[in-house]
Design a protein that fits this description.
Blueprint lengths: L9 E3 L3 E7 L6 H14 L5 H6 L4 H4 L2 E7 L5 E12 L2 E11 L8 H14 L9 E6 L2 H10 L6 E4 L8 H14 L4 E3 L4 E3 L1 H5 L13 H10 L5 E8 L4 H11 L8
Parallel strand pairs: 5-6
Antiparallel strand pairs: 1-2, 2-3, 3-4, 4-5, 6-10, 7-10, 8-9, 9-10
């Protein structure tokens, strides 16, 4: 599916494989169309076609693309993709897309994919982890996933804090990231809400707002977002905290058992 990968860019589990490619991937339009159709079939309640259809060059624009594919038939079960957001005053790894088929949403697939994804980005050296990670989401569950990926330790900060108040420096950084993504985005710094963020990408992607195990997070999203909006999440990681961040990603998804 990803073409031209090396052993360092794949990982095998009992039921599925994980693959990682960078910007220079050999990825044809036909491959992209198959990814979209597999994800649409696996996420029938979501408008996957609209999401990718409004961003026709997205597979070319991803700097990093991680895919989980079924070992039996090659179906795409999950996707995690990012790009570097580098403009004056902004240097962030932007998590652009995260999708998992309904059949695997409650399992370990996403934790394994995020571990593998960040290991490949940093080439197994925590010093190469990004200083800033950002993403926009309408989904409280994804916010909680970010909390789990980047633990509350010295040197790691997450915006927005739920409940607040917000750190003024992080809120200011979030504003710069929002403007770097699109000058027309409006960030509400007290809540992290990006007005119109979802409508710009795919207004009908989500059939509903999912619920996380954290009622405070659910209430924050419900109170501050319409279907057209998103929350802009920003994580900052100090150099001394990077080994602990990588170790946390690995602890959440232990090494796979050997598979032939």
């Amino acid at each position: 599916m990803t073409g031209g990968r090396t052993s360092a860019e794949s990982r095998r589990y009992e039921d599925y494989d994980l693959n990682f490619t960078r910007k220079d991937r050999a990825f044809t339009p036909e491959m992209g169309a198959r990814v979209v159709e597999d994800l649409q079939a696996g996420m029938p309640d979501f408008n996957v076609r609209q999401y990718f259809g409004t961003q026709p060059t997205i597979f070319e624009d991803y700097d990093h693309l991680g895919l989980a594919t079924d070992r039996a038939d090659g179906r795409v079960l999950g996707l995690l993709a990012s790009r570097w957001l580098r403009k004056p005053g902004v240097d962030s790894l932007y998590i652009w897309t995260a999708m998992v088929a309904g059949s695997h949403r409650q399992g370990a697939l996403f934790k394994r994919l995020t571990r593998f994804f960040f290991e490949r980005i940093c080439e197994d050296d925590p010093r190469n982890l990004p200083d800033v990670v950002s993403s926009k989401t309408y989904n409280p569950v994804f916010y909680k996933l970010l909390q789990g990926m980047f633990p509350r330790i010295d040197g790691v900060r997450l915006y927005p804090e739920i409940p607040g108040p917000q750190d003024p420096a992080l809120a200011e950084l979030a504003g710069r990231i929002a403007r770097a993504l699109n000058p027309n985005l409006v960030l509400v710094e007290d809540t992290g809400a990006v007005l119109g963020g979802q409508a710009m990408v795919a207004p009908d992607f989500f059939p509903r707002m999912d619920r996380s195990p954290d009622e405070r997070v659910n209430a924050h999203f419900a109170a501050n977002l319409t279907r057209a909006d998103q929350v802009l999440c920003v994580v900052t990681i100090e150099p001394d905290a990077k080994p602990a961040v990588l170790e946390n990603l690995r602890r959440r998804a232990p090494d796979p058992q050997p598979v032939a």
